[in-house]
Amino acid sequence: MPRGLHLLASSRRDRCRLLPQSNKRVVPGATVGRLPAYLQALTELSEAGSRRVASDELASVTGVRSAQLRKDLSYLGTYGVRGVGYDVSQLIDEITAELGLTQDWPVIIVGMGNMGRALAAYGGFGQRGFRIVALADDDPSIVGDVVQGLPVCRLADSLAANERLAIGVITTPADQAQQIADRLVEHGVQSILNFAAIALRVPDNVDVRRVDLSTELQILAFHAQRRDMAKGREGVG
Amino acid sequence: MPRGLHLLASSRRDRCRLLPQSNKRVVPGATVGRLPAYLQALTELSEAGSRRVASDELASVTGVRSAQLRKDLSYLGTYGVRGVGYDVSQLIDEITAELGLTQDWPVIIVGMGNMGRALAAYGGFGQRGFRIVALADDDPSIVGDVVQGLPVCRLADSLAANERLAIGVITTPADQAQQIADRLVEHGVQSILNFAAIALRVPDNVDVRRVDLSTELQILAFHAQRRDMAKGREGVG
DNA sequence: TAGACCTTGTGAAGAAAAGCACAAAGTCGA
DNA sequence: TCGACTTTGTGCTTTTCTTCACAAGGTCTA
Ligand SMILES: NC(=O)c1ccc[n+]([C@@H]2O[C@H](COP(=O)([O-])OP(=O)(O)OC[C@H]3O[C@@H](n4cnc5c(N)ncnc54)[C@H](O)[C@@H]3O)[C@@H](O)[C@H]2O)c1
Ligand SMILES: NC(=O)c1ccc[n+]([C@@H]2O[C@H](COP(=O)([O-])OP(=O)(O)OC[C@H]3O[C@@H](n4cnc5c(N)ncnc54)[C@H](O)[C@@H]3O)[C@@H](O)[C@H]2O)c1
């Protein structure tokens, strides 16, 4: 089986080409990355009672340029009305469908330490089709705990009890992450969200995204240092 | 004060231009985003006893192409030796300096719920110059708790007690995030890591990065759906 | 019904990032 | 010392992403 390497959270090469037979357009990876933000803003607008929204407004709320927003939406098809804007609920439906959020995505979290428990407690998971169906840990003193109504099991038992698992979330120490990923993949999991600071090797047909606190902080530090240098130079020069 | 809007975690426009007087090169934003990964791989190599590493090897470990790795490193200056590779510890020093990790970055975490506590417990923070110096929360039943050796204070008290705060981490509910960001900014914080699902409005001189679980899951779902569609079509056609 | 007025959708241009391929520059053994 | 061999650094090409700017297409008022 061919194996790719997935280290960086936002792979730039994830352009999404639908099958040629399909008349749907290619949706660029960069666009896919922004759709969730649009969706969220639209949901808030909808709850606030808005029925329509113009690209300028939605763009402003989500922090992108209006031209970019329009181009992004244009990949989903043409749903705006010139002179008026977009129908909020129609756009919600459209993005929801495009992202696959009408489907049911059973999620397993492996590693019920601090992070795993925080994720399990996070309500936002439950919305949008994501459903936590299993919690796994290896530590005998943790196995058997009930977290958010779900029992913590050993990974093997969790897998045995859940034939279909769409998404695996890994929140174990980094040195365990690879073997856990291997077991998830073997069980048919094709989407992995990895919190451990390690590059997972998985087959090409498996999608890994990484969330790395440390990376985010370091990027912030880089910019902060640059600001400081600029300021120092300014003061001197 | 001019205000920008920062919604997406990885703003594509964050190219980093050093001052003209400086002879250092411009480091593209995409490169900055990969440096932490290189640094981590190098640290592991160093701990494993490697003194030198070739671009092919380091690229393979971090999941990028070797040409890209070399180009990335070339922005830091020329530190490789042709025919041999790179000196591991020298490269570590170089990247560390470039990212500003030789400096001290005092961090405050605001919102000591599940996520905030998980972050406070996360050891990886302490390395690399990041130092958690304050924990803040509003809930009277939480204020006064000692988490990881630090007392939880009200935000106002935390700010009063810490004149210099370089990085603010926001782990409160989304509806509180903006006002907390405002207070952090007012106190001089110029780097914010936002876990709340909301686009923060901050002045141009403030850098916001967002970590959003929900976004990551939705991107995974998009790709998973695409895979399923491809498979379904394959089976049918 | 007509014309003023909006806002979309998009072609084209521009900018950024990725990838290729090879000359340059070093090592190392004999 | 020399020549075979290795790996870097980078100019150039290709691809991807963003931004511009405006015609097209629709609304709304009178
Ligand atoms: N906590 C954070 O804020 C944070 C932030 C960034 C990254 N991370 C990363 O996330 C991961 C988890 O962090 P944490 O703070 O929750 O750690 P933790 O030590 O609290 O939890 C890890 C859990 O994984 C379990 N585990 C270990 N090996 C296992 C295995 N083979 N199978 C199943 N379970 C296993 C342990 O029993 C433990 O409960 C780490 O890799 C860490 O680097 C954490
Ligand atoms: N927990 C997760 O896994 C997770 C994942 C993704 C996103 N998030 C986001 O991170 C944030 C925190 O999540 P959580 O699960 O830790 O929530 P939580 O409810 O457990 O914690 C929030 C904490 O913030 C405190 N708080 C509220 N208002 C405050 C204020 N004005 N000043 C200071 N403190 C205040 C509360 O007292 C509470 O302790 C939320 O916005 C959530 O959407 C969490």
Please describe what this structure looks like.
Two copies of one chain form a homodimer. With 237 residues, chain A is α/β, with parallel strands linked by helices. Chain A folds into two domains: 3-98, Orthogonal Bundle (Arc Repressor Mutant, subunit A), CATH 1.10.10.10; 105-214, NAD(P)-binding Rossmann-like Domain (Rossmann fold, 3-Layer(aba) Sandwich), CATH 3.40.50.720. Chain A is built from eight helices and twelve strands. The first copy, chain A, has helices spanning 29-47, 55-62, 66-74, 88-99, 114-121, 155-161, 174-186, 213-236, and strands at residues 3-6, 52-53, 80-81, 85-87, 105-110, 130-136, 146-147, 150-153, 167-170, 191-194, 200-203, 207-210. Chain A has a seven-stranded mixed sheet, with helices on both faces. A three-stranded antiparallel sheet of chain A has the order 2-4-3. Chain A has a two-stranded antiparallel sheet with strand order 1-11. In chain A, a hairpin with a 3-residue loop joins strand 3 and strand 4. The longest helix of chain A is centred in the C-terminal third of the chain and has 24 residues, at 213-236. The termini of chain A are far apart. Mean pLDDT of chain A is 88; it is low at 1-23. The interface between A and B is large, with 81 and 81 residues. The complex binds nicotinamide-adenine-dinucleotide (2 copies). One nicotinamide-adenine-dinucleotide sits between chains A (110-116, 136-139, 142, 155, 171-174, 176, 180, 195-197, 213) and B (118-119, 121-122, 124). Chain A binds a DNA duplex (30 and 30 nucleotides) through helix 1, helix 3 and strand 3.
